[in-house]
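User: Here's a chain of 472 residues. Predict its fold as tokens.
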Amino acid sequence: MHTNYKGYINKLAHALQVGAEVIYYTLPNGTAYMPEVGTLALGGENINQSYPQVNGVNNFNSSLLSGYLYAAGQISSNSYGLHIGSASLGIPGSAFVGGYDQSRVLGVVTTQSTFSASSALPIDLLDIGIGVAEGGSPFNFTSKSGLLMQGNSSISVSLQVLIEATIPYLYLPSSTCDAIASQLPVTYQSDYGLYFWDTADPQYALIVSSPSYLSFTFRLDQGNSDNITINVPFKLLNLTLDAPLVATPTPYFPCRPLTDGGSFTLGRAFLQAAFVGVNWMSGAFTNDVWFLAQAPGPNTASTAVATPIEVSDTTIGNSTNRWIDSWKGVWTVINSANQTAPTNSTNQPIHASSTHISDGAIAGIVVGAILLVVVLALVIIFCVRQRRRRTASVRSRQEYDLLNRNPGIGQKDESRLTEAGMSELETSEIDPYVELENSQRAELDGHWARELEGPPARVELEETRSQRPALL
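Assistant: Prediction complete.
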């Protein structure tokens, strides 16, 4: 190691030792505990830093790591690139000063401006959602948005958050944490200010092993309406509390409702899946610039692509690798073809491409079925009526023909009429004026025609129908 580095590391170790004597974290229930590890500052806007007196130790001046190395001419700029990764899932951490590992930068990169007073890294958070990268879904939906503002009318368009690697959780509004938790098998533990996973729920294993993720959508940059989304798989949000916080290891979901009026912040839980870099020297904006992008999963090249950040750089390059490929073989894809349809439970699995029929489609089917039944009924009624009319017409014709062929119908014809389907002769169906056959015709002798004496020529048939009306 270079001699100058040794001097710097010794000063840094002394500063950490002094600081560790007074650093305590406090749980919501009031329990205080010391951190097991300290923090390493990767740089700041000012190369030279002054530290106050701590536990009787006088103030001393020093330089942060990146600034010291830049001043010594060892790196290209006062800058760094960081991807925290995940030890439990085999994603090695990556920390570069004066540059970054380009293989840790996937997709679109956003450039933001720092807070000059605090060197904080602010960005506008537009939404939080849940999605599935591939295959079936462990939820009763394939995607859900609007979780950031759900139940909180005070968030109008966006929420400014800080990106901070020195704190562990996702510090968000209570309404946001509750909205996310309502979709998960978790319960809130007020003593810890965190949500514990219900490991007995079958959905727990499905969710934390599947390609499902929590998505964070940010404003891409100043003056730009485009967005950038970073996905954090639920496999990375299945973290474990250990001693001294709990007696036995306990899986938890790292969303902590912010109730003390501090800044909403995305900490290390978020940076497991995100790359962050800073150039403290760019000077292109009013303040310095920093970068945010999607980081890869466990399938990451073991050899880093070391890329310098120059003093004037306001953008950085990315890798051509795909994020989804970096998780292949690590998460368990739910087979949508064999997946069981969801029950009434809120968090039951469904197909990625759902075959559920929408309410509108169901209504259309019902209306169509009703119309079909009505049309069929009308057709049947029409056919029945037409058949009855044809039957009545045939009967009338038979009756008329029968009477014309037999002008003198007596008692013996009653059975024939009955066989023809007539129970009674209707006067309206029989012509009462039947002309006499030629042998019966006679002209009156030289007298004017007059009406014959006696009963009228037009008579009604008696009940026996043995007589027939005739015109003489």
